[in-house]
Design goal:
Rossmann fold; seven-stranded parallel sheet
């Protein structure tokens, strides 16, 4: 029997869509108060409303992860609403494509500001409250792209997702003194609005390259995050879980079978 997470509070950045929305839904089904954080109020509100309709506790909060002042405001509002912060899912991320030959400094910075600085600012804004919570779980949404695999057009994105893991390992040492853990989920190809925008050809060829022969679901990632948020995971820090249907395993097409 797992220890209940009832009445703990989670902040999910990028909680209005895709993987973050899956995390918000699965965490709420486990009795956790959910702060759905995104820049667009309408999407965040409708995600929070859906959760409330199915009996969970959720509220939408506006926050831009690339802006520390905005994240500080959001964290204070969450505490005013739910009384504290126990778990942080630093999930917001963007993945525009651009060849390295054409990439401008601005395009590079936009990806790094959201994916990398966004991770830092999310944690910085929540840390004072996590320290008070006497619990403290941080879960990053990294990716297989960058730390393990590559994809043409995603050199900036891959760099940002690998950087999150380098950040995490040093952060784990700084946070350990507060009994706060930080770990990362590394999704493969997960069916989300963002991924669907890449087109049917991309989705079909990806599914064919995965041993389990399907793309992942947002719940596949959410349950891995929920495990890392559990009391039972309290001795795990600075680690990663790949959730990719075995996509990174085959050495060749023949090995894929
Ligand atoms: N989908 C996949 O297959 C896949 C695979 C590996 C890793 N990942 C990672 O999973 C995470 C989520 O990806 P997804 O596919 O679920 O993306 P998505 O469907 O495009 O949703 C992105 C979410 O992030 C929010 N967001 C974007 N920029 C933000 C900012 N500056 N501040 C606050 N919120 C922001 C968006 O809301 P607003 O636009 O309203 O702010 C939205 O809620 C990302 O970190 C991505 O790298 C995804």
């Amino acid at each position: 029997m797992w220890t209940s997470l009832e009445d703990k509070t989670v902040i999910v950045t990028g909680g209005s869509k895709g993987i973050g929305k899956g995390i918000a839904q699965v965490f709420s089904k486990n009795g956790i108060n959910v702060a759905v954080v995104a820049r667009n109020t309408d999407h965040a509100e409708s995600c929070a409303a859906e959760i409330r309709k199915s009996g969970g506790k959720a509220q939408a909060f506006v926050g831009n992860v690339a802006d520390l002042a905005s994240m500080n405001r959001m964290a204070q509002e969450v505490v005013d609403t739910f009384g504290g912060i126990d778990i942080v899912c630093a999930n917001a991320g963007i993945f525009p494509t651009c060849s390295l030959e054409n990439m401008t400094g601005e395009e590079w910075d936009t990806v790094m500001n959201t994916n990398m600085r966004g991770t830092l600012f999310t944690i910085q804004a929540c840390l004072p409250y996590l320290k008070l919570a006497d619990y403290g779980r941080i879960i990053l949404t990294s990716s297989i792209t960058g730390p393990v695999t590559g994809y043409a057009g995603w050199s900036h994105y891959g760099a940002s997702k690998a950087a999150q893991l380098g950040f995490m390992r040093s952060a784990a040492l700084e946070l350990a003194r507060y009994q706060i853990t930080i770990n990362a989920v590394m999704p493969g190809n997960i069916v989300t609005e963002g991924l669907e925008n890449l087109g049917a050809d991309y989705l079909n060829s990806m599914a064919a390259s995965i041993p389990l022969k399907r793309l992942g679901s947002i719940e596949d990632i959410a349950y891995a995050a929920l495990f890392l948020a559990s009391k039972e995971a309290s001795y795990i820090t600075g680690q990663t879980i790949i959730v990719d249907g075995g996509q990174t395993i085959p050495e060749s097409l023949e090995a894929l079978g």
